[in-house]
From TrEMBL:
Domain Acyl-CoA dehydrogenase/oxidase C-terminal: 231-379
Protein's name according to its UniProt entry: Acyl-CoA dehydrogenase family protein
A Pfam family reported for this protein in Swiss-Prot or TrEMBL: Acyl-CoA_dh_1
Source organism (scientific name): Pseudaquabacterium terrae
UniProt keyword list: FAD, Flavoprotein
PANTHER family reported for this sequence: ACYL-COA DEHYDROGENASE, ISOVALERYL-COA DEHYDROGENASE, MITOCHONDRIAL-RELATED
Key word 4Fe-4S present: no
Every Acyl-CoA oxidase/dehydrogenase middle domain range: 122-219
Length: 381
């Protein structure tokens, strides 16, 4: 047994795998081609307790561990990374609300995204502010007890669906004494006047994960929708982003394991030149590399999650795990296509879809370059 596994986590893995193979795998190609949000799958994930697994029971969560949530995301991404990302992006909002929200905000906004009746979005990225989050231009001005919001966001996961909301939005709310922008997080409920979606964005992967441009034109929300302390927006987001890196790594682990599983099965079944391609040493070596990287990534990610569960520092481990798992997932997806040959480039085959999904993972929650900066700075400080 894996050193971080126990009977409870084994049961969670089995449940997540049954759900992924029974409810997601049969419609995965359809979701990819249609780029539609899987409402029934999201509802079932809520009923199974996956959407709120690592959050307090007092607010409708499951009271589980982050390591257990990593296992769930791993199993879902092994089948369809877009569906796994819906849970991951929802958890980013849940963490902000859980860590910094008032009791009233938790009751109104956190509970629905933990039980799966709604799905949360975090609106940080803008057309000219990606890795440099401090450069955001969206503004919120306090007028007569309301925040008046003007601006635009882009690449916002979980937006534009019938169950989207709440949105946690980062906006400039003033200037600090040193002249830098004061950035705060503000909760914007679905259907707020002045809040609209632009075009649906088409991606090379995560095609069933709904992603839109968002626009705010004198969008007014009550002053009490400020999340936590005014001016603490970036600090709040950065305090949760390392957890997000573990979760992105978990999805990369799912792609690693899925690529290994599919390649192994295909090599046993496929014959060329009168013998199974599993007898070709060049392909055997590809499997050996995939298996080694999958094992190493799992050890790194499970350790990072276990450190978080124990309340110990895990920032460097999260960046290392995210960097290693996502880059190795991209490599494994590439090699899985090589093994499958012509079939591998057909979108009806999961190895083809995993290739696009894997590329996205190297970008979100901090690019590979950002992770290397974080790791090296930590080593040299």
């Amino acid at each position: 047994m894996h050193p971080w596994m126990n009977d409870e986590r084994t049961m969670i893995r089995d449940a997540a795998r049954r759900f992924a193979e029974g409810a997601i795998a049969p419609i995965s190609e359809e979701l990819w081609e249609g780029q539609g949000f899987p409402y029934d799958v999201w509802r079932q994930a809520g009923e199974l307790g996956f959407t709120g697994l690592p959050y307090p029971e007092a607010h409708g969560g499951g009271g589980g561990s982050w390591l257990s949530f990593v296992i769930v995301l791993e199993e879902l991404a092994r089948v369809d990374c877009a569906v796994a990302n819906s849970l991951m992006a929802n958890s980013s909002v849940a963490s902000l609300l859980n860590n910094f929200g008032s009791d009233a905000q938790k009751h109104q906004f956190l509970r629905p995204i933990l039980d799966g009746s709604r799905i949360g979005s975090i609106a940080l990225t803008e057309p000219n502010a990606g890795s440099d989050a401090a450069s955001i231009q969206t503004r919120a001005t306090l007028v007569d007890g309301h925040w008046s919001i003007h601006g635009a966001k882009i690449f916002i996961s979980n937006s534009g669906t019938e169950v989207s909301g709440p949105l946690v939005l980062a906006a400039v709310t003033g200037k600090k004494p040193d002249g830098r922008s004061e950035i705060s997080n503000i909760i914007v409920p679905a259907g707020t006047p002045g809040f609209s979606t632009g075009k649906k964005l088409k991606k090379i992967g995560w095609r069933a994960s709904s992603t839109y441009e968002l626009f705010f034109d004198n969008c007014r929300v009550p002053a009490e929708n400020l999340l936590g302390e005014r001016g603490a927006g970036l600090r709040q987001t950065l305090s949760t982003i390392n957890t997000g890196r573990i979760l992105i790594g978990a999805m990369a682990l799912g792609i690693l394991q899925g690529s290994l599983d599919r390649s192994t099965a295909y090599m046993k079944d496929r014959s060329q030149f009168g013998k199974p391609i599993a007898s070709f040493q060049a392909l055997q070596f590809k499997l050996a590399d995939m298996a080694t990287h999958t094992h190493a990534a799992r050890l790194m990610l499970y350790q990072a999650a276990a450190l978080k569960d124990e309340g110990l520092p895990f920032d460097r481990e999260a960046s290392m795990a995210k960097l290693f798992a996502t880059e190795r997932a991209m490599e494994a997806a590439h090699q899985a296509i090589q093994i499958h040959g012509g079939y591998g480039i057909m979108s009806e085959y999961p190895v083809s879809r995993a290739f696009g999904d894997a590329k996205v993972l190297e970008i979100v929650e901090g690019t590979s370059e950002i992770q290397r900066m974080i790791i090296s700075r930590d080593l040299l400080k």
